[in-house]
Structures are given as C-alpha cells and as structure tokens.
Specification:
39% helix; single chain; 6-stranded parallel β-sheet
Length: 279
Amino acid sequence: MLNVRLNTLMDRVGTLIYDIHTHIDGISHTALRTGNLCILVTDRSIMQSVTERIEHILVRITICAIGHIIIRKLRKIFRSLIKGAVSTNGFVACDLPEELTSALEKRFLETGSPKNLTYFYAAGQGNRDGSGADHFAHEGMTSTVIAGHYNMAPKLGELIMQNKIKAYNLPQGTLSQLYRDIAAKKLGTLTHVGLYTFADPRVEGGKLNDITTEDLVEVVNICGEERLLYKAIHVDVALIRATYADEYGNITMEHECCTAEATAIAQAAKNCGGKVIVQ
C-alpha cells in the first residue's frame, strides 16, 4: 500500500511537470496553474524560469510528502509493537535482522518506546556480544521472553535471573513447529515432547524465575494418552532478514546462511493480523 501511494504521488507530479513543458513548447502565452496558484506568463524565457522554479517546489513537496507517509507508517508499526509479541528469525549469529533490532533498541533508549514487549523466538540468537536477543535486554522495553535457547544472550539472562522480566524456556524444536501451527490458526502445538520434563506444567512449565507464573503449556488427554499443548502466541510483528526484495514485497534468501523459521514466522504474523518487516 505504501508503494502504491508513493507511486501515485510521483505520477501526479510527473504529469504536472510534463503539462508545463508542453505549454512552453506549444505557445508563448499561457497560464500555469498549480492547485490554487495561477501565474500568467507572456515571455518565453520568463516562462522557462517560472517552470523550473515550480519543478523545484514540486520536488520538495514530494520529498516532504514521502517523508510524512513513511513516518506515519512507522508510527503505526511501532504502535502495534507496543501491543503484543515481537518475533525474530535467526540462528546463533546467522540470519539476524541486526539493523532492525539494533534500531529498535536505539529507539527505546532515546524515547522509552516501545515498552512492555513480549519477545518470542525459537533458536538461540546472538553471539554473546550484545547482538541478537540482547537488543531486547532492557528493563521496561521487554516484559516477557519466550525462547528455546538463552546462551547467546547473556544480558537477557541477567535480567531474567534478577526477576526483572518474565521468561520461559521451552523446547526449541517445538517452538519452531509452534510458528507453523500459529500460521495455521491452530490453538497451539500438541505433542509428547516435554512430558515429565522441565517443560511439563506439573514440573516447572518452562518458567525461569519467581515472577513468571502463567502456564503456557497445558496437559491434555487424547484417546487415553497424555500430551502437552503448547498454546498459540499472538505474533504482532515479525522481524526477518533476506538477501533481495522487490517492490511488491517478495524476498529471496539465497545468500543467507539458512532460512530457519523465516517463512513460518512471517506467515504467523500475517495470519495474526500483524506486520512483517524485512531487513
């Protein structure tokens, strides 16, 4: 939608400039009209000067309009970020949307927003150097983390151990599958994985500290057998990285190390009515 609006704006400006030049080449006396502005020109050289000035103004107006459209779009995205779960793709130091997550961190440090995010990812993300998941390691910015691996994000781990944010550690493969089930609009992922382990709510339910109390995993009985239901998580924003993109939003990943959960994360966000932002 943003591309369509920008293209329409540029087409209108281009058409107006073309019409002005047509007047110059066709007649020596004409009235140049732009909106409510009307200029009567009787000299060809003066007309050329006026036309160049109008073109300059139109270009500046176009740039300002594009800037306002982009700002409004970003504000909408960040408002949706504040409301719910943010999910990122990546595997250790690979496929991380670093430009996006570092910009999000910078925005929080400068403005205090977005805040109280729920951060959801499967594989460990980062390189123990402040990258990856550690961009979310700020009290106030993140309220809850749901992840399959924490070793690559030591700053995030510190906040969890200090009871400053809620956190869950659930089986990485199950979380990867959960993305696909969220995309399919299922209630969650039903599996035997995690039974009688730390992920089982009768043991710990994957909870990592004292302030984490809500159960995200439920024991259910199917055909006389116990299974665990890992409940679906509403994904509002998906942040992923790709190699190339076209103006229609199609992306390719041929030069990335691996695709990981990129497709499933994007599908989950879209089918939750959320946004997909690609680096």
